[in-house]
Amino acid sequence: MNISEQKTRNIDEIISRSSSIKGSSIPARYRLNPRTDRHHESEPYRQNIFGERNDNNKQHKTILMVGETGTGKTTLINTMINYMLDIKKEDKVWFEITDECQSEQSDETDESDEFLVQSQTSTITIYGFYLQESPIDLTIIDTPGYGDTRDPDKDKEIAMGLFNLSRCNDCIHEIDAVCLVINSTVNRLSDRQIYIFDAVQSLFGKDIAKNIVLLFTHSNGAPPKNALTAVKVAKIKCAVNDKNQPVFFLFDNCQSNAADKRYETIQQTSWDLSFEGMRCFFKFVENIKPKSFQMTQDVLQQRNQLEAKMSNLRSRVREVEQKQNELKQTQEALEKNKEYVKNKKNFEYNVEVQYKEKVDIDPKRWRLTKKATCCTVCEENCHYPGCWWATDLSWCSVMTDDYCTVCTNKCHYSKHVKTSQIYETKTKIETRTYKELKKKYEEIDDTKSVETLLIKELQELEEQKIKLVMEAFHCVETLEMIALHTDSLLTLQHIDFLIEKLKEINEPEKAKTLENIKNRAEEKTWSKGILKKMFQK
């Protein structure tokens, strides 16, 4: 059997394992029928696997694809697959591994169906391509729906999804390339595009920069000078060549278009351009050193801990301030009734007190997980939403060396539970008596006055608040050292609150550090409107 016959046989074999796409003529389009793995509906990623990974000696490459809807990211993923299969234009076939219906919906659905599309496209998709006919095993991580500036919570889901993915997926231990997909015809990157690229890069460690490349689509083969200028103006970090220019590859997006004799030369040129782009891209991937997910795990864990600490900090600050208010009301009652106090007579007074109540998690709030990691000792929500995959809570991303980094007492993970309810702090007016108050403080220390012990309790509460603020600041400080981008919305949405609290506890230098991060972000065109809306909340 000659090479041509063997290739025809291979193509026929793949067609037999595929489904014909209706309406296709030449090239005949086929959708590969992957094995779809999704362990649970709440998991933040799904897998479409074609073939089996049997050869451990075979090269395995992992690629992350990032791009705004309409840039041609889906076509690029399919082009990679056809390149791996050595499909030529004269073979008159085209294979697709992506979910065509989902792609079409995300491009065409009107606003009335927006929630449906967003819920479908907010999940990370892993395409595993493991065929004997392919020279390498290929894993493509797609982040559809990423970068919705209207809802930063989606970005938290993607960040959590990437962290969980790197922790528990057997195939993904390192990443070879992060591909930023850009239309070659643009003169400037949109605010949304810059936001997407910044947000994704903020999830990685500084070591990933040399593995970030630009994939320019809808190209005519000429250097995309305007688009490259737009990338430089936007200060997108990526790999550079020996001339200190961004590393990029060119592609057209017409391979699956129906053949037309009138445009045969143009279509052949388009095909050749894209496949030459793929050849150069995979040569780059083959020669670049892959990056372990370790630093990225560290970044993502710090981001998860920052998110959890900020959530708990806001709650704890409210609780501390409410408790301070309660104690101040008690002080005022003692001052108002000082004659009764002096004569050791009983009296009643009203104070606003707080109490905690367990409530069900709002199912509309978080789409991917309806569980929270809560401390049963401190009665606090340590990680909300919690790690969906952490059946052993010692693996929860807010745990370090088996102890929680978030709750007040930094309790052991065994004191925590994963639950569909969270603690909610509420207030009520309560009538108390001086007799009860005196008894309470005498049990604490009968050598000091009630007033002295009240002041001491207020000081202890203030120290708790200071500790919480400093822990959150150190999270941001650590991210500044290890993350490729610090000034992402995941950080910025908390920054004004943290600056305010640092000033309250007399830490002006630390507040200045955060103000510099905020100012750096405000220099970017995409952030101005978003930050304004965010800080007005």
TrEMBL record:
<feature type="coiled-coil region">
    <location>
        <begin position="296"/>
        <end position="344"/>
    </location>
</feature>
<comment type="similarity">
    <text>Belongs to the TRAFAC class TrmE-Era-EngA-EngB-Septin-like GTPase superfamily. AIG1/Toc34/Toc159-like paraseptin GTPase family. IAN subfamily.</text>
</comment>
<dbReference type="InterPro" id="IPR025662">
    <property type="entry name" value="Sigma_54_int_dom_ATP-bd_1"/>
</dbReference>
<dbReference type="GO" id="GO:0005525">
    <property type="term" value="F:GTP binding"/>
</dbReference>
<dbReference type="InterPro" id="IPR027417">
    <property type="entry name" value="P-loop_NTPase"/>
</dbReference>
<protein>
    <recommendedName>
        <fullName>AIG1-type G domain-containing protein</fullName>
    </recommendedName>
</protein>
<dbReference type="InterPro" id="IPR006703">
    <property type="entry name" value="G_AIG1"/>
</dbReference>
<keyword id="KW-0175">Coiled coil</keyword>
<dbReference type="Pfam" id="PF04548">
    <property type="entry name" value="AIG1"/>
</dbReference>
<keyword id="KW-0547">Nucleotide-binding</keyword>
<feature type="domain" description="AIG1-type G">
    <location>
        <begin position="62"/>
        <end position="226"/>
    </location>
</feature>
